[in-house]
Amino acid sequence: xxxxxxxxLGYEHLPVRRSGTYAAGYVTxxxxxxxxxxxxGTQPELKLRRALxxxxxxxxxxxxxxxTNRRRRVDIFLRGVxxxxxxxxxxxxxxxVHAHLPRSNRDWWRRKLxxxxxxxxxxxxxxxxxxxxxxxxxxxxxxxxxADRIAQLARERRGHRRS
Length: 163
Ligand SMILES: [Zn+2]
What we know:
The chain is α+β, with helices and mostly antiparallel strands. The protein has 2 domains: about 1-40, no CATH class; about 40-160, VSR Endonuclease (Endonuclease, Chain A), CATH 3.40.960.10. It is built from 4 helices and 4 strands. A 4-stranded mixed beta sheet has the order 1-2-3-4, sandwiched between helices. Helix 2 packs across helix 4 (about 145-160). The longest helix has 24 residues, at about 105-130. The chain binds zinc ion.
């Protein structure tokens, strides 16, 4: 029965048939306008995007590059210089500092997490073959340090293109 007004969920139960804009307006008015965005970007992703923006870089987010597996999504995508950035969560992508296996169902988790890493390497290979530079940023990394690295790579790649 209890439902927090800011959850952004459950509004489909409201009588909104007459106009779709009512539903959208309702969600926005409760101050959770970013809720829809949640799926599109984790906190580390959003921080990195802001850091890149501050450095004057412009990019697309959550796209699948042409010529690659359509289900492949790239988190941040610098089209002009052909840089594909992934922000990898420490747990799911087994970062060297924070990787760990949950205590229960260890075998299942091991296979699951190994599968994620294999898919990562597969994506790297496919994108590299298509001419993209793949940059992976760990969730735990300082977004400003990562953004500096990406900005530097973008400058280098822009330089190469002119010659
Ligand atoms: Zn980590």
